[in-house]
Inverse folding.
């Protein structure tokens, strides 16, 4: 396990306990160690890269695509990685929407850190990225994920049978969504001391 960073990370936005920032190549060792520690927690709900090679491919795909952007959720006291929130399938033009994918690592689960990080990402998406709508597709049995989006103010929109192929089977999902006009942030966005914001579409 890599040692926590001793200097502040260049966060895109900060809350009381966490900041969000892009993935970096040097995050590979810490991220993959946390992913391996979290196999039981993640179960069939999600998969995260567990090797350095897989991480580099994963992070590179996020950085190299105009339709995806990824954020690490890091604890501000030590810079450690608590989880991640990605915006996938970004469609611009008349849609201005994206689909969320996210996960907390085992050491950070149940502490509200991902909830705070998700709030920062949603504010960043509706502000700096100029999106109008975000949705999250969640398996019906994933109670922790359903509770997360409910707390964030997402509304239930529908049920999609056999929506995604995960862990060897087609899985049903519920669709939850929120739009920029209806979103109510949990914490005011703080960017005054952060590094310049990055638009993945520039």
């Amino acid at each position: 396990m890599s040692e926590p960073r001793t200097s502040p990370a260049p966060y895109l936005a900060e809350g009381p306990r966490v900041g969000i920032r892009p993935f970096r190549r040097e995050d590979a060792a810490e991220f993959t160690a946390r992913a391996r520690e979290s196999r039981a927690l993640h179960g069939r709900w999600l998969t995260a890269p567990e090797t350095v090679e897989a991480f580099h491919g994963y992070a590179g795909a996020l950085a190299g695509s105009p339709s995806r952007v990824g954020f690490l959720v890091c604890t501000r006291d030590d810079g450690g990685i608590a989880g991640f929130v990605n915006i996938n399938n970004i469609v611009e033009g008349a849609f201005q929407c994206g689909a969320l994918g996210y996960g907390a690592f085992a050491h950070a689960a149940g502490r509200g850190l991902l909830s705070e990080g998700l709030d920062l990402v949603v504010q960043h998406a509706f502000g700096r990225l100029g999106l109008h709508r975000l949705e999250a597709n969640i398996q019906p049995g994933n109670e922790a994920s359903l509770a997360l989006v409910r707390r964030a103010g997402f509304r239930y929109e529908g049920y999609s049978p056999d929506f995604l192929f995960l862990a060897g089977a087609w899985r049903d999902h519920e669709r939850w969504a929120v739009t920029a006009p209806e979103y109510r942030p949990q914490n005011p966005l703080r960017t005054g001391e952060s590094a310049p914001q990055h638009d993945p579409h520039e």
Notes: The beta strands are 13-14, 18-21, 69-75, 81-91, 97-104, 133-138, 155-166, 169-179. Residues 13-182 form a domain with the Aminopeptidase fold (CATH 3.40.630.30). The chain is about 25% helix and 30% strand.
